[in-house]
Amino acid sequence: MRAIRYTRTGGPEVLEVADGLPLPEPGPGEVAIEVSHAGVHFADVMFRRGQFPLPLPAVPGLEVAGTVAALGEGVTGLRVGEPVVAVPTGFGGNAERVIAGAVATVPLAGELAGLDPRLAAATACNAVTAVGTLRSAARVGEGDRVLVLGAAGALGALLGPLARHYGAALVVGAAGTPERAAAAGGYDQVLSYDEIANRVGELTQGQGFDVVIDSVGGEPRGQVRGWLAVFGRHVVIGNAADRDLTLAANEVWYESFALTGYNMGGLLGRRPELFRAHLEEGLRLVADGTLKTSVEEVDWAGVAEAHRRLEGRTAETKYVLRVR
Predict the structure, then answer these.
(1) Are residues 219 and 284 located together in one domain of the fold?
(2) In this structure, which of 53, 74, 191, 279 has its CB flanked by the most CB atoms within 10 Å?
(3) The model's pTM
(4) Residues 49 and 28 in one domain
């Protein structure tokens, strides 16, 4: 089997194309998938550079499309040869074959029958995260004023339009630089982080944002409290800056706001049926055109460059490895 792998953490240069790897076999409740397309996700970058522990050697890849190759014990509702999209939360997607939980494997049938496998692989993780974040964690509803940090990224490209779809009255994006802000679409306005504090009052009629979606961490995370409305929700869904902060619980009490979060892997482990519902809804919204993502295919040799662009914040599209 061919795969992208790394034997040590570090920069994109640690990625290598490895041949002759053993084919993984599904265990109980699992599915083996012959991969046709695999997304290249920013989470792959974070694990590759060692932000989170992962047994080495490791194969990146959290979202794939392909066909079912084998079913583990107890798996129902899927058949060998069936086209599927899956989120293998144990990673391994940048390979010719990967194992995913059956609960995280969705047939490309019915409403999803016409979904391009390339687009499915490009959006699976971000679609489930966008739906789960806005529907379950932020509980966005009619009239809400929403601010999305990290708006210029692939996830941000889905969060803005989806917040509007769920009824938000105002959807503002924020990005690290004016140039990055200008690249973000699907928002009423997009600001650089330096502009937010001076514009909150104007944009929200002095009330603050009802929801702030925070995948960024670092300095902006420490400023969110000042941007929130009374009973506003600060929703933490990532830490791209790799800099956390400590929040005193009394601050939540004094300022009357809520701190919540969304983590795809954590949800799958504790509430797999809810993860599945978020994944299916997200994929339907991609299939019907509500959520849109530009996609660029890369070959095996192009994965390291895709990592380099993601890490350098110069990516202008979602990268997908064409496996076969």
Answers:
(1) no
(2) 279
(3) 0.93
(4) yes
